[in-house]
Protein: 2-hydroxyhepta-2,4-diene-1,7-dioate isomerase
Organism: Virgisporangium aurantiacum
Amino acid sequence: MRFARFVHPGGMSFGVVEGEAGAPVSALTVAEIDKIPFEEVRYTGKRWALPDVRLLAPIFSSKVVCVGRNYVEHAHELGNEVPKEPLIFLKPSTSVIGPNDAIRLPPQSKQVDHEAELAVVIGVGPGPARRLDRAAAEKVIFGYTCANDVTARDLQKSDGQWTRAKGFDSFCPLGPWIVTGLDVSDLEVRCEVGPPGAVAEVRQLGRTKDLVFDIPTLVSYVSHVMTLLPGDVILTGTPAGVGPLTAGDAVTVRVEGIGELTNPVTTLD
C-alpha cells in the first residue's frame, strides 16, 4: 500500500494512494483514512484526485537517523574509507520537508549537495524498538519512502562533525508517500537535477544491493544506540555522484517501486 499525508480543503489527513503503480499523478486518487496508518486501516469514505491535494512529508518523525558512507563508491568519491560499522548521525525533525517544498540554500554555505537515498519508516512492533536483533528489526519496519540528505559540503569539511552541514531547515525532503510490503533488496536509486521544464541531468544512479550494511543490519544497529519510535526515519546512505545544487534547480529523487520526490531549490530569504 501507499500511504500519504496531505492537505485538502477540509484540513490535513492521512490516506491511501490508489491507482496503478507507475501511473501519472493525474490518474491517481487518495482515499482518506481515519488516523495515522500504523494500525488497522479504516477509510472515511472521502476521496480526492491526487492533483487536487497537496502532499506533505508522509510522516511525523521524532528523529531522522542517517547513515554515512554506506555505498563503497560514494565513500571513495569523497576520499573516505568504508566504515567498519555503520556511521550514523542525526538530522533534526525541523529539517524535514515534503514534495515540491523548496530546499533553501543558506548563506553560510557555498556548496550544498544532493544525496538521493532510500528511507526506512519505523512502525509499531510487538514491543519497544530497542536492542533488536535482525529478525526483530525487520518486524518494526513499516515501509519505505524517498529521501534527499541535503548537505552543506563545505561546512561538513570545515566543521569536522556534521550537525550544521546536515541540519539546516529544508535539508531533509521526504516523500512522496510510504510504500509497505516492498522488497528493497535490489532497487534503483536515482537523482536528477536541472532547471524546471528542461531535460534533467542524471547525477546519481545506484542500487540498494550495493549497500555496505543492509537494512535489517542498520535498524538493529541504530536500535542498540537509541530507541526507535513509530514514525522515525532511517536514511540508508547515498550512491556515488553527489553534486552541487544551485538556485533555480529542481532536484528529483527516484526510488524504484516507490515513486519520485521533486523539490525546487531557492536561496534563503
Notes: The chain has five helices and 20 strands.
